[in-house]
Amino acid sequence: MDAIEFTTATAKAHAPLVQRAAAIIAAVGRAQPIWLADAGEAATMAPAGHHRILLDRSAQPAIAALPAPRGERHFALSYTDPVSDSSLAALIACATRPGAPIAADPESISILALAERLAASDIPVLIGGPTGTGKEVLSRFIHDRSPRAKGPFVAVNCAAMPEAMLEALLFGHTKGAFTGATQATEGFFRAADGGTLLLDEIAEMPLTLQAKLLRTLQEGEVVPIGSTQPIKIDVRIIAAANRDLPTEVAEGRFRADLFYRLNVFPLTLRALRERLDDIAPLAFALALRHTPKTATAMPWISDGALAMLRMHGWPGNVRELENVVRRALLLADNGSKGGRIEIRPEHIHFDSPARLVAMPAAVAAPVAAPVAPESASVTPIEDGRSGRRLAGIVQASEAKAIMETLAACNGSRVAAARALGISERTLRYRLASFRDAGIPATAFAGGRR
Questions:
Q1: What is the rounded distance in angstroms from the CA atom of residue 186 to the CA atom of residue 276?
Q2: Cβ atoms within 10 Å, residue 296
Q3: CB-based contact 128:254 (threshold 8 Å)
Q4: Which range is least confidently modeled, 104-113, 242-251, 414-423?
Q5: Which residue among 133, 157, 191, 388 sits deepest, i.e. has the most Cβ atoms within 10 Å of its Cβ?
Q6: What is d(CA 306, CA 85) in angstroms, rounded to the nearest whole number?
Q7: CATH 1.10.8.60 describes domain 4-104+275-347
Q8: pLDDT (0 to 100) of residue 386
Q9: Domain 106-268 belongs to what topology?
Q10: What are phi and psi for residue 20, nearest 5 degrees?
Q11: Mind listing the pLDDT tens digit for each residue in 371-393?
């Protein structure tokens, strides 16, 4: 069954919009077939089970929700210019089910096409890319297109779980295996049996646990804590990392044998600023996602607003874009007339990333940390527009304490972590968050284990 279907009359009435959208939708593929029809055609022409979109040329662009069975969303799309970016982006967004990946950039389309081929196999997949680029969305796409689609999809963020509990959470434990283990748990591996397990931020996994993970992948079995009997599992592994794993291997922070076990087929997602053609359809899709399901009038994003989005650098990638869209929806809704919501340039307000600025004396309060020489001190970070807000003060104080401690320990992360009373893994996570916030790499230059 084709991914998109339409009548000859629809193709003639709405060319070249239908032709452009059909090429992209067919290349990406859709789990549910799509039916495009002219608004003047009978709605009953849509085959059963198809996602229905009615098209109409109008002086005022708009998206409206159509009556649909519970859990589905059909749309009526009115557009002015068939060759404008907003018309194409709106149609792609309407044709994409919630949670599915959006792609209009040629390289993004090729990655999704490759991911769909990978889905048919059981080989491990390693997804790389900066934070917020959609690695979990791509993982779900692979799971949904695989023979395991009816099985569970379990996503585990290795950086978000306490290091001391990570082994028990992954592999499970028996009752009484340790203090507080009042009952047995199956762990994430057994919870994902018959399905897919995503190990996100796998670079944050401790070396000691990496050895046990390697054995699990090789043998297809887990040994819960407190047990001596292995349990067979049938799990497809997808790993994701926002750091360069070959570099982590070279520096001794990631096992080479585990890397080669996971790196059977690597996929890399680029930063949002490097795939400009994805920005407009992503913005429309996010606007539809955050519009109440009970609403009939959907938001429209003007060409001027889309131009602003394309010119932004997007250090926070898709997560930042979602913040901007949600903010714009609130501002546009407050100024809407007649129930129609249009996001215009004045509604676009970008996130203000934390950056190095001078710290006021009242903010730079001392914190409990080893004191570094004055020549080694580093100016902490603040939000340039709200430097005295509590969140900014806390973030600045934490950055100042960590940087001064690193300087006092001659850049040794092991010594600095011990002095701060945190694990080296937590310290690495904090340093990575500072880099994402825009602190230059020179602040951490010369760092040693």
A1: 43
A2: 13
A3: no
A4: 414-423
A5: 133
A6: 8
A7: yes
A8: 41
A9: Rossmann fold (3.40.50)
A10: -65, -45
A11: 333 333 333 444 444 444 444 55
